[in-house]
Design brief:
about 160 residues, mainly alpha, Rossmann fold, two-stranded parallel sheet, about 5% strand, binds S-adenosylmethionine
Length: about 160
């Protein structure tokens, strides 16, 4: 089972809402790329000239996270709960998917990092900045597995073509 670590909810001094300026900068920096990808995917100018387009937007995160603050900002939003390391949407139902500051989260800690008798024991650390190469490789291997699952599941959900 996946363990999730929810962001601090609400609007207090220590909330995610008030401590995510860097994420906002990254979202702002990617806006043009996202807009171009949506226009390209929907072929908006060619096919839908003079037609009012309707969009449905889903936000996905773990169930424990604070969606209420999000919904106050985006009343049109819907939520999809669950892990992006598994299926979230029906087959071929999504035209465009965007992950914002999230896919670097691993599905789990590689188990050898928690084994005190293993050469890859990470001494209780949650980072590998000062760890040996075996620890780094264990994180890389987990990331590769997670990314393969992430892209395969999204590929099933995206409308082809
Ligand atoms: C740094 S926050 C980014 C939140 C938001 N997407 C943004 O751009 O501000 C990372 C988010 O990824 C979520 N997350 C981590 N692993 C996840 C998973 N396997 N499935 C769904 N959400 C996940 C966390 O719960 C957390 O809310």
């Amino acid at each position: 089972m996946t363990t999730s670590y929810p962001m601090n909810d609400g609007n207090s001094a220590y909330s995610y809402f008030n401590n995510s300026q860097r994420q906002k900068e990254l979202i702002d920096a990617s806006k043009d790329m996202v807009r171009d990808a949506i226009i390209g995917k929907l072929d908006v100018e060619e096919k839908y000239h003079n037609i009012i387009l309707e969009f449905q937007v889903f936000f996905s995160d773990h169930v424990e996270n604070d969606f209420n603050t999000l919904f106050r900002s985006f009343p049109y939003a819907s939520r999809v709960l669950g892990s992006f390391h598994g299926r979230l949407f029906p087959s071929q139902s999504i035209h465009f998917a965007h992950s914002s500051c999230a896919i670097h989260w691993l599905s789990k800690i590689p188990k050898e990092l928690l084994d005190e008798k293993s050469p890859t024991w990470n001494k209780g650390l949650i980072h590998y900045g000062t760890s040996n190469i075996d620890v780094v490789n264990a994180y890389i291997a987990q990331f590769e597995k997670d990314m393969e699952i992430f892209f395969n599941t999204r590929a099933e959900e995206i409308v082809p073509g």
